[in-house]
Amino acid sequence: MNQSRVFQALWLLLLSLICIVLFYWRREPTKYPQEVLAQETALTETVETVVIPSPSPSPSPVPTPAPTEYEFVDVFVPLYTTGASPADTVPPDSMFAQESATPFTPPKSEEPFSLIWFSDTQYYAYKRPEIFQSMADWVIRTYPEYRTTAVVCTGDIVDNRNYERHWTNADAAISRIREVLPFYCVAGNHDVGADSVDYTQYRRADFCTAPDTMLFYDDCRCWVLPLPEQQILLCGIGWQNNTEYADWLNATIAAYPDYPAVVLVHSFLNDDGTLSTNGKRVEQAVLSVSPTIRLVLCGHNDGSARWSKSYPDGHTVNAMMYNFQDDKKYGLGYARILMFNPGTRNIAVTTYSPFLDDYNYYKDAARDTFTLYDAW
């Protein structure tokens, strides 16, 4: 009988230890659940492809305090304190409060300007529209200080294209942005179907087909838009399983030889910084053909990655990917701010979540805040 009680006690002790281990294992990914996805090894290929290594890890506070200065320098110094409240202290109705909209005025070409970049907003359109609204409100509130010229999205705007509620939730936030700023997007696999590639629902959303000055290929599958004030060419490549658009896109880009091109595409990089299957197609059919392309923005895969390739004609293309949607606790509401400096031709990058009121998703802030030199 005593042996039975001892056995029961040992069994309960073992179960307790297992529960404790599982508890701490489940809560371990604090602020860096996807750091393991980015490989730190630099790769050199025959055409000088380089996967940019991340700097040595250095802990940063959680959450990172909002900076108090803002100036365009080689290393980005972010904006003044935005005053955004943490999500758990904001009354639900305030997320949808209508703020007075200031008419959009494009910045002068000689002044630095910014693009605000959203990636994979599908979870917000599906279950958390208040996060989408907080991002929209932040864009409206801060665009004069950032000299924001547009908001761009690299696909998977919604989670399921067949549910009208997802499109309605997305449009509620995006329409707020469009009251004061242009919004440009490309289709992701969730927007049109990975295999079916059906653009029917996607084309019904007004924000997917505006503005009229866009040059479209095959019903929004691909587009080109010159931004004369900023002297750049925005190009969008929607989700598709071929490169039939490539000849049209290359010819259209060639018509603007003085404009460095920025390409938005849903899938281009894997989480380890290598090219995805679609990335290989785009690189071979478009990047290697059009020498004015200098920057590629993408999402789709989880985590964050960077890639760079120098071509024989001397130009270099940088690519960036970020997507934190799978981190439902610490990855909410992050946007990237890309600051273009016409004087240095540098692009300063930082990452901020207005919903969490937090700069930098990763503990190593250099993963989120960095500068691309001579990048456009």
In the CATH hierarchy, the architecture is 4-Layer Sandwich
Bulk shape: globular
Number of helices: 9
Residue ranges: pLDDT <50 for 5 or more in a row? 23-101
CATH topology: Purple Acid Phosphatase, chain A, domain 2
Indicate the structural class: alpha/beta
Q: What is the CATH superfamily?
A: Metallo-dependent phosphatases
Helix content: 25-40%
Q: Could you spell the SSE succession in H and E letters?
A: HEEHHEHEHHHEEEHEHEEEEEEE
Q: What is the alpha-carbon Rg in Å?
A: 22 Å
C-alpha end-to-end distance: 79 Å
Estimate the strand proportion.
15-25%
- Major sheet size, sense and barrel closure: 8 strands, mixed
Write down the CATH class: Alpha Beta
Give a quick rundown of the structure:
The chain has helices at residues 2-26, 122-126, 129-146, 164-178, 189-192, 200-204, 206-209, 246-254, 277-287; strands at 49-50, 113-118, 148-153, 183-185, 215-217, 222-227, 232-237, 261-265, 293-298, 303-310, 316-323, 335-341, 346-353, 358-359, 370-372. It is of the alpha/beta class and 376 residues long.
Core attributes:
376 residues, alpha/beta, Purple Acid Phosphatase, chain A, domain 2, eight-stranded mixed sheet, seven-stranded mixed sheet, 9 helices, globular
Q: Would you write up a description of this structure?
A:
- This protein has helices spanning about 1-25, 120-125, 130-145, 165-180, 190, 200-205, 205-210, 245-255, 275-285, and strands spanning about 50, 115-120, 150-155, 185, 215, 220-225, 230-235, 260-265, 295-300, 305-310, 315-325, 335-340, 345-355, 360, 370.
- With about 375 residues, the chain is of the alpha/beta class.
- It has a single domain, classed as Purple Acid Phosphatase, chain A, domain 2 (4-Layer Sandwich).
- The strands form 2 sheets. An 8-stranded mixed β-sheet has the order 1-10-11-9-8-7-6-5, covered by helices on one side. Strands 2, 3, 4, 12, 13, 14 and 15 form a 7-stranded mixed β-sheet that branches.
- Helix 3 (about 130-145) packs parallel to helix 4 (about 165-180).
- The termini are far apart.
- About 45% of the residues are buried.
